[in-house]
Design a protein that fits this description.
globular; single chain; alpha/beta
Length: 247
């Protein structure tokens, strides 16, 4: 089984961090292929960044088709471009937020997602509600710019820990979800520190991708995720014009 991990931002070190987390949980027969977007923002913080990251994400999904992959994971907790990717791909595509909160729902009645900035908190809160977990989950921002998670001297880990402590004491959280792909390397350490399940979206998405592939299931192509209709795209988007599917 081959699972493609696509980082929709252009920071390669974050891709490697996600790939390392994915390989740590992947089954022995699973190959993890990591790809970094070649265009777009260096980090994704809010709607504007997310919108401009989608073309690079779709480009990577298309370019990797020739070598083949059985499922794809979008390594951004905003689930950037997830709907478009599911429409494009013929294999299962998973987002970190949807995968992580589904996993947390198996483990706790109440849980808190701790993310980076307030603008991301609002976006993720909307996703949590859309995915049906609004009554069970709260989303908190720790006031950490995404790229500060790459800098050990930034104080980001202390801010994250302080917000987790508030979630446990004020929200009654029984589990914590890490709301950024850049936090993926911290899950085990934080779980040991706070004594509650700490869910990393990368790990959750990889295991769910393996399950879907093993079950022989993929995204429905009837209705909302049907393949794009062939048509001409113009200007800078001309290279993204959908083509007729074989058969």
């Amino acid at each position: 089984m081959r699972i493609l991990i696509v980082n929709p931002n252009t920071t390669a070190s974050m891709t490697e961090k996600a790939a390392t987390a994915a390989r740590a949980v992947a089954a022995s027969g699973t190959e993890i292929i990591a790809a970094t977007s070649s265009m777009g923002p260096v980090s994704i913080e809010g709607h504007y960044d997310g919108a401009l990251a989608i073309p690079g994400l779709l480009f990577e999904l298309r370019e990797r088709q020739a070598s083949g992959y059985d499922a794809a994971v979008i390594a951004c907790f905003d689930d950037t471009g997830l709907e478009a990717a599911r429409s494009f791909a013929d294999v299962p595509v998973l987002g970190l937020c949807e995968s992580a909160i589904a996993t947390a729902g198996f483990l706790a009645q109440r849980f808190t997602v701790v993310t980076t900035l307030e603008r991301s908190r609002v976006l993720i809160d909307n996703l949590v509600r859309r995915y049906g977990m609004g009554e069970r989950a709260r989303v908190r921002a720790s006031d950490i710019p995404v790229l500060e998670l790459e800098d050990a001297a930034s104080g980001a880990i202390g801010k994250l820990g302080a917000e987790i402590e508030r979630a446990l004491s004020e929200d009654g959280a029984e589990a914590i979800v890490l709301g950024c792909a850049g936090m993926t390397d911290l899950a085990r350490e934080l779980q040991g520190t706070y004594g509650v399940p700490v869910v990393d979206g990368v790990a959750a998405a990889v295991k769910q991708a393996e399950a879907l592939v093993s079950l022989g299931l993929s995204t429905s192509k009837r209705g909302s995720y049907a393949s794009p209709l062939p048509k001409r795209f113009t200007g800078a988007m001309s290279g993204f014009s959908p083509v007729p599917r074989a058969g």
